[in-house]
Design goal:
Number of strands: 5
CATH topology: Pnp Oxidase, Chain A
Number of domains: 1
Order of helices and strands: EEHEEHHE
Strand order of the largest sheet: 1-2-5-4-3
Distance between the termini: 38 Å
Largest sheet: 5 strands, antiparallel
CATH class: Mainly Beta
Structural class: alpha+beta
CATH architecture: Roll
Helix content: 25-40%
Strand content: 25-35%
Length: 112
């Protein structure tokens, strides 16, 4: 899944109301997220925090912020907003409470 960071430093994830991650966050807002590097075997970190689930129609503008955080400007914001409404998307917004340590990942060197 792709996540971003909003202007308040929260981790944001676009999702659907019926997904397990969304149902679990509603049941217990204490969540953990593992953030991986773009490089296979690269650094990663676990972030623990408190999640809130935002559903439609309140999720539209937070989803615009999410899109901007991960991809920049959209060529047609009206179309994007309409698509999010039609798809019934939700947004998970996670306030980090603790994180780390950063693991360097990777595999041990092959023995000679």
């Amino acid at each position: 899944m792709t996540c971003g960071v909003d202007e308040a430093g929260r981790i944001v994830v676009a999702t659907y109301p019926s997904r397990a991650k969304t149902r679990n966050a509603r049941r217990d807002p204490r969540v953990g997220v593992v953030v991986l590097s773009d490089d296979f075997g690269g650094p990663w970190v676990q972030v623990d925090g408190d999640a809130e689930v935002i559903d439609m129609p309140e999720a539209v503008e937070p989803l615009v912020s999410y899109y901007r955080a991960i991809a920049g400007e959209h060529p047609d914001w009206a179309d994007y907003r309409g698509a999010m409404l039609r798809q019934g998307k939700s947004l998970l917004r996670i306030t980090p409470r603790r994180w780390g340590p950063v693991a360097t990942g990777g595999f041990p060197p092959e023995s000679a």
